[in-house]
Amino acid sequence: MSIALQDRFVRDLPELAVPWRAGAVADPALLVLNEPLAVDLGLDPDWLRSPDGLRLLVGTQLPDGAAPAAQAYAGHQFGGFVPRLGDGRALLLGELVDARGRERDLHLKGSGRTPFARGGDGLAAIGPMLREYVISEAMHALHIPTTRALAVVATGNPVYRETVLPGAVLARVAASHLRVGSFQYAAMHWQQTGDVDLLRRLADHAIARHHPGAADAENRYLALLDAVIAVQADLVARWMLVGFVHGVMNTDNMTISGETIDYGPCAFMEGFDPQTVFSSIDSSGRYAYGNQPAVALWNLTRFAEALLPLLDQDVDRAVELAQASLSTFQERYNAGWSEGMAAKLGLSGAPADAVADPVTDLLPQLRQSRVDHTLFYRWLATAARGDAEPVRGEFIDLAAFDAWLARWRAADPDPDAMDRVNPLYIPRNHLVEEALSAATAGDLGPFQRLLDVVRSPFEERPGLERYAEPGAREFTDSFQTFCGT
After folding, report:
1. Is residue 262 left, alpha or beta, with left meaning phi > 0 and alpha meaning psi from -120 to 50?
2. How many domains in the chain?
3. Contact 270/373 with Cβ under 8 angstroms?
4. pTM of the model
5. Number of other CB atoms surrounding residue 471 within 10 Å
6. Are residues 162 and 56 in the same domain?
7. Helix (H, G, I), strand (E, B) or coil at 406
8. Which of 97, 339, 383, 479 registers the highest number of CB atoms within 10 A of its CB?
């Protein structure tokens, strides 16, 4: 099969690309292939299953003219700036054009050490790579912008962590891998040399690839900042609406495109609690569920700082422009959140005050009773159809909830509309762990079943009751996720 892998990023921004090759793979074996995504990319699924196709998916055999590279970027990790991060175990193979004419990165994780490995082995185990696959596919099905997994290939190489684990490579597709950290790296170059050329070329590349409307603005770089703020405000609002906890919202994990990236210590909240943290490395709760909007604004402020020399030659004026742009984040986020909550409550189209009061009064009750964040809205749709007992049984202060329920019912909610936006099936943490443990031991059955369920999250299907149920409280209360490195 003839594949045209472009090298636009490498050609446009060679200072941010270190030419590199994937490491050797002992015995590649396909674990899972995203056939619809492959077809959308113009790739033949049958060919991808062939020996040559598998070698492409692990990066050891590339088409002529390909220019694989490890990308350079910086970033704030848990608030501390690291000037040189980059793709320590990842590789950009190049760009493909999909069926809609969009340029997409083809990117690997777990393909071996690069110059950015910082002492790591550059490898990945089967479990974390399958985690990214299933959760990114669930996010896609939930209509949340995301990078997507094309395939996971077992390598036959051992990976040494606390125990010896089977290795794997994830082939990932993204609108691009440009991050806030990419701009921080370029801004650092400007600070050290006084040369703004790299930063300007990076910004122009981002505009052309993701936000072409900014090119026609009076101040194209301010328009770029505005556009990134807008897509990130929308993205985080969508996360919050489904109870998604990213877990590691460092600036190198915030994309310029507005896609969710890096499914390391991520998980879905079950019992509603803004302080929910799953990541084993987030001991302070910096990236807790309820902190995500504020952290997004913090990250965007770092992006604005990186853009300052492009916004205006006068530093004070540049700061004023950046601050004015950043001040729009909260309004944009609130608008996305409020619109989404109105839909979840079946009140789309209702007057704003008819939605605001129910939302304000509801959240403290959800938190007090730790009601399951996903099932609550499905139970509530049942209440709108006349049977309130399933949802009433979840609340400690029943009188307070009954009063809320009466006010909500008076607004005439639409239960069918609720079921169209409120998922019944999410990647429940206990089911994800069950599937990954089985897959690591060689049984892909539980993973395949879970994947099938989360790809159709809104439609109730008989026989799938266990996939809608929360995990046992003793599991949930002690559950931790790990970054997978």
Report:
1. left
2. 2
3. yes
4. 0.96
5. 17
6. yes
7. helix
8. 383
Question: What secondary structure does DSSP assign to 190-229, as a single string?
Answer: HHHH---HHHHHHHHHHHHHH-GGGGGSSSHHHHHHHHHH
- How many secondary structure helices (H) and strands (E) does the chain include? 20, 11
Q: Give the chain's mean pLDDT.
A: 96
Q: What is the pLDDT of residues 389-418, one digit of tens each?
A: 999 999 999 999 999 999 999 999 999 999
For residues 28 and 111, give the distance between their C-alpha atoms in angstroms, rounded to a whole number: 12
pLDDT of res. 405: 97
Residues of the chain with pLDDT under 70: 484-485
Residues 12 and 138 in one domain: yes
Gap between the Cα atoms of 385 and 401, Å rounded: 17
Domain end residue (candidates: 155, 177, 199): 177
Residues contacting residue 51 through CB under 8 Å, at least 6 positions apart: none
If residue 321 lies in a helix (H) or strand (E), which one and from where to where?
Answer: helix 315-326
Domain-embedded: residue 200: yes
Q: Do 173 and 190 reside in the same domain of the chain? A: no
Q: Measure the CA–CA gap between 448 and 459, rounded to whole angstroms.
A: 18
User: For the segment 123-165, what is each residue's pLDDT rounded down to a tens digit?
Assistant: 999 999 999 999 999 999 999 999 999 999 999 999 999 899 9
What is the domain extent for residue 235?
A: 181-336
In a shared domain, residues 156 and 297: no
154 & 12 share domain: yes
The strand pair at 244-245 and 75-77 is best described as unpaired
Active-site residue (options: 226, 252, 282, 419)? 252
- What are the tokens at 284? 């302070």
112 sits in the region (left: phi over 0; alpha: psi -120 to 50; else beta) called: left
Crossing angle of helices 315-326 and 292-311, in 10° steps, is 150
- The neighbouring-strand residues paired with 109 are 90, 170
The verdict on whether 252 is a catalytic residue reads yes
d(CA 225, CA 202): 13
Asked whether residue 149 falls in the same domain as residue 295, the answer is no
- At position 348, the amino acid (one-letter code) is S
Q: What is the dihedral of CA 223, 229, 232, 237, to 10 degrees?
A: -130
161 assigned to some structural domain: yes
